[in-house]
Amino acid sequence: MFKNLDHSPLFIFLFILFLAVPQLYAFAMQFAEGFVPFKNEPARVHLSWDMFSTKIERCTLTWSPPVTLGAEKLSSLRDASLPLEWDLTFDHPADYKYIADMGCHLGGTPSTKVKLKCFLQQGKIFNDEFLCNQSL
Amino acid sequence: MTNFFVTSLSSFKRWSIKTTSNKSLIYFRIVFASIWLIYDLIDVSTSETLKISWFYHLPVPANFTIGLQIFLITLEIGLLLGWYPRTLAFGVFLARASFAYFFTLNDFFYFSAAALLLSVSDSGGLPKKTKQVLAWPRDLFILQTGWIYFASSLLKLNPAFLSGSDLFVRHNYEISVLPIYYPEFYRSFVSTLWGNSILSGFAVVMEMSLALTLFSWFLFPTQRKKLHCLALILVIGIHGYAAYAFNVFFFGASMIAQVGFFSKE
């Protein structure tokens, strides 16, 4: 594939366009979406290489006793996936609250205790603790 | 103006027929295919991607996801062994790009770009039996790598990242969940906003330096040995730390291989 074409300057030029245009467009979209260096955060734009640059907040989530989700008993969201590389994460505390409630609905009891520890922007930490009957 | 275009066109034509040894392309194909074969084998055997369906509606049927992953694994084995490397590289590009359309991870976008570049490269054979091949795919690999670090570091120039807020979130979350040893001094350092702010500054400087080093590789051909060493130190520093602190391994390993093999002339 492409073996006879790769000597053609026209093919090479078109290939470079095919590779570069979507990436340059995505990068330009970041500015169109409001990104201004040192002033406004970038948004999530596919192919703009925005890894580690969008604003996130993350939580640890535990259920006690464990709840059944999918095919497994989970005492924490961390237990849902392999710890390295695949750790299941979300970018907003609201998503973790949604998962906590889902755990309660699908595999918890009214007395199941839910603990959320959220790491927020500006170095803040937010702790929340409630029983499943408050979300059921 | 006409003169400018004529000169540019003749430079482009000269560049398009320049040749180099395909040793780095062969090594990269083998390492790249190995890294992502391991990734896909683990992902499929432990149903990691499918676990998303426990919480959210999958964007595509589960059978389609598994089918696509098994197809990817098959092609990656072929690519690793060097069978029809261009065709299989184009196949893995199509398969991963389809996957990335539904599961929009930067790692998958990167994989698609690298596989597409491999599909126009002469990366067949074994490292012991090298030959002279066209150099432009190798050059594009280096430019693509430089662009990734340039764009990524520029987008990090924002208040949330530079203030240390984002790294505060990431560091403290990972410390809470990862089964990795983190010494006490490190824990207390990353629990402060100012500590994370310093690390954020370092991250931007290192990524931008790596991008500029890779771009300089074209501008200063006589300095390529030194630039290769500098690029290698930077890329290992960036991704070594990211693996330890932020739980990202496969993308980093690919980038180290990409910088390590291609910037070495």
What is the compact description of this entry?
The complex is a heterodimer of chains A (136) and B (265). Chain A has 136 residues and is an alpha+beta fold.
What is the mean predicted local confidence, pLDDT of chain B? 94
Q: How large is the count of helical segments of chain A? A: 2
Pick out the low-confidence regions of chain B. none
Order of helices and strands of chain A: HEEHEE
Strands ordered across the widest β-sheet of chain A: 2-1-3-4
Helical/strand content category of chain A? alpha+beta
Oligomeric form of this entry?
A: heterodimer
Task: Report the structural category of chain B.
Answer: mainly alpha
Chain pair forming the biggest interface: A-B, 58 and 67 residues
Q: What's the alpha carbon Rg of chain B, rounded to whole Å?
A: 20 Å
Q: How many domain modules of chain A?
A: 2
Give the mean pLDDT of chain A.
Answer: 92
Task: Name the poorly predicted regions of chain A.
Answer: none
Instruction: Please summarize the sheet with the most strands of chain B.
Output: 2 strands, antiparallel
The beta-strand count of chain B equals 2
Give the N-terminus to C-terminus distance of chain A in angstroms: 57 Å
User: What's the end-to-end separation of chain B, in Å?
Assistant: 35 Å
SSE string of chain B: HEHHHHHEHHHHHHH
Any idea what the shape of chain A is?
elongated
Which properties best describe this structure?
A: 136 residues; alpha+beta; four-stranded antiparallel β-sheet; 2 helices; 4 strands; 23% strand; B: 265 residues; mainly alpha; two-stranded antiparallel ribbon; 13 helices; 76% helix; globular
